[in-house]
Specification:
Rossmann fold; 6 domains; five-stranded parallel β-sheet; Arc Repressor Mutant, subunit A; 62% helix; three-stranded antiparallel β-sheet; single chain; 1001 residues; mainly alpha; flat; 6% strand
Length: 1001
């Protein structure tokens, strides 16, 4: 007979207190120790995968036995049998890399608690405070003591303490709700008991003070404050927080507001400015770590030391910073990456940020650039990233203050490069590698990485060439390790060559390496060892491989794409990355990533790059080097040009020069550029460095052409720093060579940048210079671009007539140049002027022509912008249903492209549609969703604009007080950000709100 399953109404698993399990026959005994720990871990992560490695770490704090994973499997098997035998429907299933315990909300007290507290918050938003308080009390009643009391695992105790904190937060919330309901007399005893148990919780102390004061017991309320102040000073050396101090001041002054509970919000309405229960966007946490090394061999004691620094102590108030230092080739980056992968999933679930700071190269990455990369990875759109380094650092720290993020900074040059990148929260940690000791980095612990001892070196050698070969020539293997001084990089290089030549005895490699070292005995020991290894390997390569290694050193970006080998060797094979594989086999190149096409991405160790550059200088003539460099730049230019064509539907709104192109095979290009903007984004570091490198080499034509073609990336992603830097470097080169067209193209593009950054004076100066040069050259395309942007400047200054005149001239120039997308962009922009003037028919006609062009060429970016304007025109004409359909279509387009800024605009526009037809609740909901996006991406100015919309809505429906409060806040923001037009609108509305009631008509 089948066992009866638990009924839906009963709780089977209880962890909010001692761990208890209820079966059909009553309590089910779980043996203490390993089974208890494993079940508790699975219940804490119910319905989510818990890795076997994590379970092993929970059970064995120190070095686990070889049978650890087997013992975990046995424990899981016994738990399955026990639960099934007790008739409990909660299967434990195997799912790589571990196990999942599946259970419904009503069968686990923790999940029931979480569900009920979430429901209570919904009730609060709906104004049903009494029901919310009652539900929170029932939720807290699920606790039977401290969470998981009796469980000895320190890691589980840490999680249990977090849940106990959730219980206290729930208690404080229902106490506040009941205080607001006027139940202060009944709450004094309960709050007093809780404060006795938790005397340092300031919110509880404030609630007791308020309850006493409202009950007419002012002196006792002040005594409670003074007792708390004395305790905080004695225990922590701190004064009470601002909220508690303000409450004391209000009690002393007899503030009448203390007697009045805030009015609950209207039903089914969320308070203005509060984020919705579900965020508008749930961005995936950043996972930027390079791949771990499969055959990693490290010092376990050192690794545990680093992990302890990063994880810190429970009472630690500062971020954990570990700096791994050591000589070149010692394995700093490999060790840091391995440790980061070990810690990431369990201890830093909110993501890992990684940057190669290139400290050992000629141009280390600036902290400002790194902050820009990290902010984008954390979900901030490029246009909203501040200009200054300090403002970026402030935004960065604000974003991760409540997150658990691991920051890995590889190959740092100086302390000043690191300091702005340190988080401000102890929940985060920073792992740095450097050749320098970083003695001035505040709060950092330094760990010196040493060479491999004999045992670990033999283990590594065996993993590369096979353990049998090592054991057969044990003495020769030890001699080889001594010869390379235990340096991991040198050992890997030598081992790779031996692996490629199984017929070579290890003793012969020892002899060869010893002779090579004597040739290089003037070098330092570490460098000498690596150079000897490199020289032996390099000499053993074939001519083509040696040439490729030399010429790959011409590339200055941090990684090497596969097609680059074809360009340097002028080889048009269908899979050019095949040329790289022999260099990977002998450890002269590392594979660091796999492209979406399945192709690989490579990287030099910096020492190998330097060696290859030295060989290039002594082997390849200047003419050979120039030809290879031109093919390399020609490849970047051809691919970027092709990406631009795919985005815009052709060579539109861009100028090109006469630099030669090198084209990879067509089928390869189609796969590589399946998503052209994504490809440009992933390659932006290499592409920007190519512009600067070409400028340094006085290859001015390719430098300006590549820089201006990259604007399709810079503009879409908001890479304003890169836009300016590449253009300024290219501008130096074209000015040195007197390249008038290059100068004009770059100045015109910079004019567009300055408009995007809100710098009208700089934009006008740049565009005027470009216009003069294009006029001298008779360049219709250049003139069209300049006049279009000058028209936009006139619009921003309020001169609509001047703008329309420039738009008309720009249209004629674009027509002469045959640039139909340029024409469509002018039609879209000028239509906005006609719409503002009330000429909706003229605006609609221009937009229809623009839409036809965009659809013909397949330019979705232009299509979405024009359609949005169409939706606004339809709203202006009173065609509300059609306007809503059009704007909803555009909303789907911007969401599909990941344009979060555009999504915020469209939600606001849809809110305007709903407001115009009197659908108050729907409009408010859309405005608040738009507001949530603005707040999420820290667009404070944009958020204030949406709050102004909400204030208009509130005033229209007679809610004067919240409208006034909202307007006062937005006015402050508009003043701080010099938003004069919005400020004027907000101040005028505030005057109206203060003057008298509005009608709801």
């Amino acid at each position: 007979m089948a066992a009866q399953r638990n009924s839906p109404s009963e709780i089977v698993f209880q962890i909010l207190g001692p761990l208890e399990v209820s079966g059909l026959a009553g309590p089910l005994r779980i043996p203490p120790g390993r089974q208890e720990v494993i079940l508790a871990a699975l219940l804490l992560e119910a319905n989510r995968v818990v890795s076997t490695d994590y379970l092993v770490a929970l059970i064995w704090d120190e070095e686990p036995p070889d049978t650890a994973r087997t013992q975990v499997q046995i424990c899981v098997s016994r738990l399955r049998k026990a639960l099934s035998g007790a008739g409990i429907d909660a299967p434990i299933t195997t799912r790589p890399p571990g196990y999942v315990l599946g259970t419904a909300d009503h069968t686990l007290d923790l999940r029931l608690f979480n569900r009920q507290t979430a429901e209570a918050h919904v009730l609060v938003r709906e104004g049903r405070n009494a029901e919310a308080a009652e539900l929170l009390r029932r939720s807290v009643a699920l606790w039977r003591g401290r969470c998981l009391s009796g469980i000895t695992s320190e890691a589980l105790r840490s999680k249990a303490l977090q849940l106990d904190e959730d219980r206290l937060n729930a208690i404080e919330t229902y106490l506040q709700l009941e205080l607001d309901l006027g139940r202060h007399h009944q709450l004094i005893g309960e709050i007093g008991r809780l404060l006795h148990e938790h005397p340092l919780r300031e919110r509880l102390r404030g609630q007791l003070m308020l309850a006493l004061y409202r009950s007419g017991r002012q002196s006792e309320a002040l005594d409670i404050y003074r007792a708390g102040r004395d305790l905080l000073i004695e225990e922590l050396g701190l004064l009470p927080g601002e909220e508690l101090r303000l409450l004391e001041t209000a009690i002393l002054s007899g503030d009448a507001a203390l007697h009045t509970a805030p009015a609950p919000p209207a039903p089914a309405r969320r308070p203005v400015g509060i984020l919705p229960a579900e965020p508008a966007h749930r961005d995936e946490p950043p996972h930027q770590l390079p791949t771990d090394t499969a055959d990693f061999v490290g010092d376990e004691s050192l690794i545990r030391t680093v992990e302890a620094i990063l994880l810190g102590k429970k009472d630690q108030r500062a971020v954990g910073v570990a700096v791994i230092v050591g000589k070149p080739g010692i394995g700093k980056s490999t060790t840091a990456t391995h440790i980061a992968h070990r810690l990431s999933k369990e201890h830093f679930p909110d993501g890992q940020l990684y940057c190669d700071l290139r400290g050992s190269g000629p141009e280390p990455v600036s902290a400002k650039d790194v902050l820009g990369r990290f902010l984008r990875a954390l979900g901030i759109p490029g246009p909203l990233i501040p200009e200054s380094r300090d403002e970026r650092a402030e935004m960065y720290r604000s974003l991760i203050t409540t997150r658990r993020v691991l920051v890995v900074l590889d190959d740092a040059a100086t302390e000043s490069q690191i300091t702005p990148l340190l988080p401000g929260s102890e929940s985060c940690a920073v792992l740095v590698t450097s050749r320098a000791r970083m003695t001035a980095l505040p709060g950092a612990r330094r760990i010196e990485l040493d060479v491999l001892d004999e045992a670990r070196a033999l283990k590594l050698l065996g993993r590369v060439i096979g353990p049998a070969r090592v054991s057969d020539e044990a003495e020769a293997a030890k001699a080889l390790i001594r010869t390379v001084g235990g340096l991991p990089l040198a050992l890997r290089i030598v081992a790779a060559r031996l692996a490629a030549r199984p017929h070579w005895p290890l003793a012969s490699m020892v002899h060869r390496l010893a002779n090579e070292r004597h040739r290089l005995d003037e070098l330092a020991h570490g460098e000498m060892t690596i150079r000897a290894s490199l020289s032996l390997t390099f000499d053993g390569l074939g001519p083509t491989d040696r040439r490729l290694l030399r010429q790959l050193s011409l590339a200055q970006g941090p990684t090497l794409p596969g097609w680059l080998a074809g360009a340097l060797l002028d080889d048009h094979r269908s899979q050019p990355s095949d040329l790289m594989e022999s260099l990977v086999d002998v450890q002269m190149l590392d594979v660091v990533a796999v492209e979406t096409t399945g192709d690989f991405r490579y990287r030099f160790h910096e020492i190998i790059r330097v060696y290859a550059q030295e060989q290039l200088a002594v082997t390849d003539s200047r003419a050979v080097q120039i030809a290879a460099t031109e093919r390399m730049f020609g490849g970047w230019l051809a691919l970027t040009e092709h990406a631009h064509r795919k985005i815009y539907g052709g060579d539109y709104t861009v100028l090109h020069g006469t630099a030669s192109r090198w084209h990879p095979p067509a089928s390869y290009v189609e796969d590589l550029l399946a998503d052209p903007l994504d490809w440009m984004d992933k390659e932006q570091v290499n592409l920007c460095r190519a512009v600067e490198h070409a400028a340094e080499q006085d290859m001015d034509e390719v430098s300006w052409d590549l820089a201006t073609t990259l604007v399709s990336l810079f503009e879409a992603r908001g890479y304003f720093d890169h836009w300016e830097k590449t253009h300024q470097e290219a501008l130096k080169a074209v000015r040195r060579s007197g390249n008038k067209r290059g100068i004009a193209a770059l100045l015109s593009s910079l004019g567009t940048l300055y408009i995007s950054r809100g710098e009208p004076e700089e934009s006008r100066a740049s565009l005027d210079q470009a216009l003069t040069l294009f006029d001298e050259l008779g360049d219709a395309g250049g003139l069209a671009l300049c006049r279009r942007d000058l028209a936009l400047l006139e619009r921003q200054l309020g001169d609509e007539e001047g703008a329309l005149a420039l738009y008309n001239r720009s249209l004629r120039d674009f027509d002469r140049a045959g640039d139909i997308v340029g024409r469509a962009s002018v039609l879209t922009q000028s239509a906005h002027i006609w719409m503002r003037r009330g000429h909706s028919a003229a605006a609609h006609a221009q937009l229809e022509e623009a839409l036809e062009i965009y659809r013909t060429v397949g330019y979705t970016g232009g299509l979405s912008r024009a359609l949005r304007r169409v939706g606004q025109v339809l709203l202006q004409r009173g065609e509300h249903e059609q306007s809503e359909r059009t704007l909803t279509e555009v909303l789907a387009m911007v969401r599909a492209s990941g344009d979060i800024i555009g999504e915020g605009h469209l939600l606001r526009n849809l809110g305007e549609v709903k407001a115009s037809v009197g659908h108050f609740e729907e409009a408010r909901n859309l405005f608040e969703r738009a507001l949530a996006i603005r707040e999420q991406i820290m667009d404070h100015g944009g958020a204030a604009v949406v709050r102004l919309d909400i204030a208009r809505l509130l005033h229209r429906f007679g809610e004067r007080l919240p409208a006034r409060e909202l307007l006062e806040a937005t006015i402050t923001t508009f003043k701080d950000r010099n938003m004069s037009q919005e400020l004027q609108e907000a101040e005028q509305l505030l005057i109206t709100v203060v003057a008298g009631p509005a009608t709801t008509s």
